[in-house]
Design brief:
Largest sheet: 8 strands, mixed
Structural class: alpha+beta
Oligomer: single chain
Bound molecules: coenzyme A
Helix content: 25-40%
CATH superfamily of the largest domain: Gcn5-related N-acetyltransferase (GNAT)
CATH architecture of the largest domain: 3-Layer(aba) Sandwich
Radius of gyration: 23 Å
Number of domains: 3
Strand content: 25-35%
CATH class of the largest domain: Alpha Beta
Shape: globular
Length: 409
């Protein structure tokens, strides 16, 4: 590395031709002009930091600015992806530096939390991300399943990306007070919800809206079909439900009735809220395989400001003192007193002795409500020196709902 000049900086539009080769290649896709054009249209260059070796882009990390809800609060959120390094330059610490730079930019931009989806948990754990959300998965053969209850009235209507505002009204109603969903803007609806990648191209997904007998939109489903392993000349299809929201029982049942009409599909896959009860609505639940699927890994980019934005759902006053270890971000590292007051939370640095200690990773999983404080104390995520502090933590981190986002990024 010492023989070459390494520069870390935000991309400029001039770097997009290089990024449009680097990024698809890292994910085993074929670079093409459409990818470069899409980048130019959708991603302002300052969202991506790159590593340049002698002027050549060899690694990059993009952070898409989003807003994550937590029981009425809105928290600026950095959705990270893609993270790439060209194969010849891997395991030299380039991405390590870029992840830290991305976190510094998040803090400057007020993005108090960050999230990402990955198969490489061990990589991101080193930089403070921790599993912080969960999804319940279903998979089944649609022909094998029938529902115990039927919708009474209402019909499905086909929808296109131009109908995104109708879907958004339903989504906002459904997620306003929830724990984890992201606020979606038009571009997110059109690019990340209502389209999907198919053989290296972005294509429209299928969508239906459930309209009740009074003409009101009460739910929607967005889904796509994808090819499975060929069997002779036949290519079996799998349906993946990308998003499904219902405001009423009739909409919920009616949308499932719609999904079950996909009788040619060999498999239907859906990842949803952990409290969803679809399996229990089936005459034979054993035909539906239920799994626990990974939600996002979450990171606290700014401890002080994240707590200032987080609502307090516990009872009465609660406080504890925690040593937080953050190996990457000095402004988080240290001992903090975290307390509730007037329905809000407050974190400030203290010289007092810590009652508990944990990594900034464990703090993220507690913060979203994914990790229960008592479980954390019993499994090594949190080290406890004053046992009563665990009950205080349970108050501070109380949530009404499991942390879950219907998005992927
Ligand atoms: C994953 C990827 C981005 C890592 O890039 P890289 O430049 O090799 O990463 P770095 O050299 O900066 O590694 C930083 C640290 O993470 C570790 N690490 C890197 N990849 C890892 C992985 N897949 N699993 C576990 N640890 C990993 C490194 O060993 C290093 O640890 P150290 O600091 O203790 O030495 C790169 O391999 C890549 O582009 N892969 C294909 C695309 C991809 O999978 N992107 C991520 C999708 S979420």
């Amino acid at each position: 590395m010492s023989r070459v000049n390494v520069e870390y900086r935000d991309l400029t539009l001039d770097d997009y031709d290089q990024a449009a080769i680097l990024e698809p290649r890292a994910f085993y896709n074929r670079p093409d002009a459409e990818y470069a054009e899409r980048m130019r249209q959708i991603f302002p260059p300052e969202w991506t930091v790159g590593a340049f070796l002698d002027g050549k882009l060899v690694a990059d990390v993009r952070t898409v600015p989003m807003v994550r809800r937590l029981h009425g609060a809105k928290m600026a959120f950095g959705a990270v992806g893609p993270v790439t390094c060209a194969a010849p330059y891997r395991r030299r610490g380039l991405v390590a530096r870029l992840l830290t730079l991305a976190l510094e930019r998040m803090r400057d931009r007020g993005q108090v939390l960050s999230g990402l989806y990955t198969p490489h948990d061990a990589l991101y754990q080193r930089f403070g991300w921790e599993r912080g959300e969960v999804k319940k998965g279903y998979s089944f053969h649609p022909k094998d399943v029938s529902l115990r209850f039927r919708s009474a009235g209402g019909l499905t209507e086909p929808a296109t990306p131009d109908d995104w505002q109708r879907l958004d009204r339903i989504y906002r109603d459904k997620t306003r007070d929830a724990n984890g969903p992201l606020i979606r803007v038009e571009q997110w609806w059109k690019e990340a919800v209502l389209k999907h990648w198919d053989h290296g191209k972005m294509v429209d997904s299928d969508a239906v809206i459930w309209v009740d007998d009074d003409g009101r939109d009460q739910g929607y489903a967005v889904y796509l079909n994808r090819s499975m392993a060929p069997e002779g000349n036949w290519v079996p299809q799998e349906i993946f439900i990308r998003d499904f929201q219902a405001l009423t029982a009739d909409a919920y049942l009616g949308l499932w009735e719609h999904m079950l009409t996909h009788d040619l599909a060999v498999n239907l896959v859906f990842e949803t809220h952990p409290a969803d009860t679809f399996r229990e609505l089936c005459e034979d639940p054993h035909k539906v395989k239920a799994t626990v699927e990974d939600g996002a890994m979450i990171r606290i980019a700014d401890v002080e400001r994240a707590f200032a934005l987080r609502p307090y759902l516990g009872d009465g006053l609660a406080a504890f003192t925690a040593r937080i270890e953050d190996r990457n971000l000095a402004w988080n590292n240290g001992t903090w007193r975290i307390e509730s007051a007037d329905g809000k939370l407050h974190a400030e640095r203290t010289d007092a002795t810590a009652e508990v200690s944990m990594s900034v990773n464990a703090l993220a999983a507690l913060f979203t409500g994914f990790l229960n404080p008592e479980v954390a104390a019993n499994t090594g995520f949190v080290r406890v020196t004053r046992p009563d502090a665990v009950a205080e933590m349970a108050q501070i981190f109380a949530v009404d709902d499991a942390p879950y986002s219907p998005d992927y990024y």
